[in-house]
Amino acid sequence: VPSKAPTQRRAFEPTDAQRTADAAAAPTEQLVTLQIRSLEDFCKLRALQARSAPPREVRCQWATLVKGQIARVLGADTDERREQELLTLLAMPSVWLPKNVSTRRIIDHFQRGQPFLVPRNVATSASEKSKAKRLAEMVQRKAKDFDIKGAINTLRTEAESGPDMNLGEKLEKLKQKFPTALKQPLAYSIHDVNLPPFSAHVVRQVLKKAKRNSATAIDGWNKKLITDATLAEDSIVDSLCVLMTQILRGQFNPLAMQCLRAARVVAIPKPNGSVRPVCVSNFFIKITGAAAVVKGGITCSDAQYALGGRGGGPTVVHKLREW
């Protein structure tokens, strides 16, 4: 006789009533499937914002998605197909792990194998936040990662920085910092150079040394997103070796390479009224460059304390006092 006991629902599986409530609470703005056909479309990913890590309940599913998408990039039979698959890979954090969505809804989308839709009209310009709100977000993020020292340093840095500026003032001062762009950009391609793929040891070494709390670029990829995937699917590292080599050689169409090389510019106010520009590069470009440096055996001079270590400023002060 079959049991008439009700089927037990997993703790993280939403009920029909919860799904109906989510649909009712969803914005009335028209939602569409994300498509990247230009650099402007790619820059919209920054406005969408993604989580810094996948929820614990869907880490294995996230690893499976990453593994399959990288495999589609490497197995594409045409340049156009390879470009679209790479752009889909870059957009994965935005469409699978949106920041301002509950964990329950993210789990529901993973279970159904359906990425989130995005608003049809997404602002391409950066949203302006107050200085207090930005400071609160940075301190809260570091506190969640148990980086109390980093949170204190953030508060000290903000206390010593100059007065806050609106977005228009920052843009004008940033334009003064950068020279006029060349009308004919320099062509860079090393297709004819025979570069063997990076070894898995080099890729693991680069991922291990990557900063955990570094700022994300336009697409939202970071160390936590890729390392969580590699811990669940170790074969992703081997696929990354080939993908990073293709990125280094520039084996993608111009649009894909433009999106990879696009950086997010942050203007930090100075006490004298000027700004200090900081460029946040794409995560895949970062680890590819770091792997090339490691593989090439390039080392820094022992007389410098800026790269390859921590506490460079205090070290210089102590060295000068000893001298």
What does this structure look like?
Helices cover 52% and strands 5% of the residues. It is built from 15 helices and four strands. Strands 1-2 form a two-stranded antiparallel sheet. Strands 3-4 form a two-stranded antiparallel sheet. It is globular, with a radius of gyration of 22 Å. It starts with 15 loop residues before the first helix and ends with a helix. The model is unreliable at 1-12, 23-28 and 124-128 (pLDDT under 50).
Give a quick summary of the entry.
The protein contains 15 helices and four strands.
| SSE order, one letter for each helix or strand | HEHHHHHEHHHHHHHEEHH
Q: Helix coverage percent of residues?
A: 40-55%
Strand content: under 5%
The total beta strand count reads: 4
Q: Report the major sheet.
A: 2 strands, antiparallel
Structural class: mainly alpha
What is the topology, as strand order, of the major beta sheet? 1-2
Count of helix runs = 15
Any low-confidence stretches, pLDDT <50, length ≥5? 1-12, 23-28, 124-128
Give the CA-based shape.
globular
Roughly how many Å apart are the termini?
89 Å
Mean pLDDT, all residues: 80
Mind telling me the C-alpha Rg?
A: 22 Å
Any chance you could write out the topology, listing elements then pairs?
Layout: H1 16-25, E1 31-32, H2 39-48, H3 59-74, H4 79-90, H5 92-96, H6 103-112, E2 118-119, H7 131-144, H8 148-160, H9 167-177, H10 200-209, H11 223-232, H12 236-249, H13 254-261, E3 264-269, E4 275-280, H14 283-296, H15 312-322
Antiparallel strand pairs: 1-2, 3-4
